[in-house]
Amino acid sequence: MKDAVIQQLLSLNRQFYERFAHPFSQTRLRLQPGVRRCLPRLAQAQSVLDVGCGNGELYLALRQAAFHGRYVGVDFSRPLLEIAAHRWADFEKGSPDQAPFHAVEITQAGWQEVLGGETFSAITAFAVFHHIPSFELRLQVLTTLRDLLAQTGQGRLYLSNWQFLNSARYRERLQSWEEIGLAADDVESGDYLLDWREAGRGLRYVHHFTADELTRLAAQSGFQVLESFYSDGREGNLALYQVWARVEPQF
């Protein structure tokens, strides 16, 4: 995929989450069933990096599950982070500017510098990678996340990816690439343009992953897939969840 197309798709999603942050947040006031299935293990982690933390719902759920470790949340949407900070302040009885959330673009090199060299025993990337255009850019982000996992043998990366093609309702909301001045040849297999209809109309770039594609991404970025399961939605198949572990080089 050409860099100009990648930047256009990233900009499209950035504008979406700026414009629709509040109505989107209202749809994310409870954890998805698949995330809740992972919660007991996450609550036992010594530290959690929440990539794509959004409105901070996972932080609140972790605290309610007796998590007492170190938590850091990162997201590119400043409006969602503002919501997260105020929710944190209400829960912790603190000031929003003390909230453990950071505005970063994980698709830009060097974003991890905000973490000050810290590593984490668990990293979550729920509903993140289907918004990152191109296989190569996903690989770049995953390689960075691997380096941020603690080298204890117990570090885990938890992911979920939207399986929207499993839903007739979402298949009806697929839009033509021409609507944003692109053609099908400009994007990669599995890429789609999906509309949004709450509090106005918006468009988002999304990628529909196959299990084989995720396995390939894991292998090329230094991970192995430990666990896979489907969850969420009326049929229980609207997202594909996976747990990955670092693969250490053999000398």
What does this molecule look like?
Strand 2 (70-75), helix 5 and strand 3 (101-103) form a beta-alpha-beta unit. This protein has a 7-stranded mixed beta sheet with strand order 3-2-1-4-5-10-9, sandwiched between helices. It has a 3-stranded antiparallel beta sheet with strand order 6-7-8. It has a single domain, classed as Rossmann fold. It contains 8 helices and 10 strands. The protein has 251 residues and is α/β, with parallel strands linked by helices. The chain is globular, with a radius of gyration of 18 Å. The protein starts with a helix and ends in a 5-residue tail after the last strand.
Number of domains: 1
What's the helix-strand series?
HHHEHEHEEHEHEEEHEE
Oligomer designation: single chain
Largest sheet: 7 strands, mixed
* Rg over alpha carbons: 18 Å
Number of strands: 10
Short overview:
The protein has 251 residues and is α/β, with parallel strands linked by helices. The protein has helices spanning 3-19, 21-26, 33-43, 57-64, 78-92, 135-148, 168-171, 211-220; strands at 47-51, 70-75, 101-103, 122-126, 156-162, 174-175, 191-196, 202-207, 223-231, 239-246. The chain has one domain (3-246): Rossmann fold (3-Layer(aba) Sandwich), CATH 3.40.50.150.
SSE order and pairing:
Layout: H1 3-19, H2 21-26, H3 33-43, E1 47-51, H4 57-64, E2 70-75, H5 78-92, E3 101-103, E4 122-126, H6 135-148, E5 156-162, H7 168-171, E6 174-175, E7 191-196, E8 202-207, H8 211-220, E9 223-231, E10 239-246
Parallel strand pairs: 1-2, 1-4, 2-3, 4-5
Antiparallel strand pairs: 5-10, 6-7, 7-8, 9-10
